[in-house]
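Give me structure tokens for this 155-residue protein.
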Amino acid sequence: MGAVFFYELQGAPLETTLPMLLDKARGQGWRVLVRGSDPALLARLDDALWHGPVDAFLPHGMAGGPHDADQPILLGDVPADGFACVMAVGGAAVTAEEASLLARACILFDSADSAKAQARVQWKSLTDAGIAAQYWAQEDGRWVKKAERDARGGA
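Here you go.
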């Protein structure tokens, strides 16, 4: 059974945080789906990944191409089949059933927008379903764990 990590972005934009998390996930050998329902947001993230540092390039593609099954990182609003990790952005959902089959799910949201309320609903839904969860927030440029629930819902 997997775990869900919630990341509240308070200092760095998604375009900065996502590549760092993708690099860590790929370092685990995971195939990653970046799930989002806003095509403009996904295009912006695709652009940020293409224009990042050359020595830190993260091979990826946008869903809907002929080589989706070969992409180590796929950006799109598609099912999680075949992925070890899902990173949900822009308020995209991850179900308890999906989370239980993944090595990791990550919910990334900005503290300044309505996604925070959505993340709270997701936290409750997933932890009530018995999914382990951690809540991380940025403080002074570093990540600090603010809350944790084990797979049985305990702290």
